[in-house]
Amino acid sequence: MSHRSYEVIKGFFEQEVGAGYGQGELPARFGLIDTSDNRWRTFKQRIDQLNTSSPVGTQYKVFFVGRHGEGFHNVAEANYWSKKNGDGELIWGPDPELTTLGQEQAKAAHNAWKQERKFDIPLPGKLYCSPLTRAIHTNKITFDSIIPESQRTMIIENLRETHGVHTCDKRRTRTYIERTFPDFDIEEELVEEDELWDSQVREKHAEIDVRMRGVLDVVFGNDQEQFISFTAHGGIVSAMLRVVNHRQYILPTGGVIPMVVKSSIS
């Protein structure tokens, strides 16, 4: 039976070296090391070369992995917060909204894309998003007027945050998502109610890694596009870094980490 393996290809982005955490602001050029005016054209040519020269069963894709902007659950820092829905002043569960700062962070990501478009940054050919409200709003703000309206983001269950125990990670119904975000597509596999969230059991790293690997299997198995966007959560970012053997990097809310990933079938 064939097996896919994944590894990050180093040498393109600042996040691969140096400090293992993001600062408050997005790094210039999303962290691309090349500072020349031709940087993104050169980068795309390099990715094209990697794919055209690769043996059968090997592919390269570029992922822009975004973390949602600040949500009300991020504001609730008291020790008891995660198992409650609110404190009488803030409501952070289930499935909280973005704060004003969170909206501003998503707008900053939008502006970063807008800035780099001046230098021909390749736009994502496929966009995927978590089904949690804070991620969908972040995706919507980030790519508004950047991506053509005809190119719709696909919401998939397996990009959701680590689930269980924390009320902020319990998703809303499929009907709610369809009615609230009609300009998004939703995968058929996403059922009406949240059947994964458990008030007593928190998902383990090994388990979230399995579903992150499953997402990559689908993308590399089905998508011809070389540039892919994920809008998700801190837990998903960490899982992807583990699966592709990228060093761990703490991405702040509203952050974006790009990476070149090699897939090999053996």
What does this protein structure show overall?
With 266 residues, the protein is of the alpha/beta class. It has helices at residues 39-52, 72-75, 100-117, 133-143, 174-180, 205-222, 234-243; strands spanning 4-9, 58-67, 126-129, 154-155, 185-186, 227-232, 256-265. The protein has a seven-stranded mixed beta sheet with strand order 1-7-2-6-3-4-5. Helix 3 (100-117) runs parallel beside helix 4 (133-143) and helix 6 packs across helix 7. The longest helix is centred in the middle third of the chain and has 18 residues, at 100-117. The radius of gyration is 18 Å and the shape is globular.
Gist?
This protein is an alpha/beta fold and 266 residues long.
Could you state the order of secondary-structure elements as H and E? EHEHHEHEHEHEHE
Low-pLDDT segments, ≥5 res: 75-91
Gross morphology is globular
Number of strands: 7
Structural class by SSE content:
alpha/beta
What percent of residues adopt helix (DSSP H or I)? 25-40%
What fraction strand? 15-25%
Average pLDDT number: 90
What is the radius of gyration computed over CA atoms, rounded to a whole number of angstroms?
18 Å
In DSSP terms (H or I, runs of 4 or more residues), the helix count works out at 7
Mind describing the biggest β-sheet? 7 strands, mixed
Across the major sheet, the strand order is: 1-7-2-6-3-4-5
The termini sit apart by: 9 Å
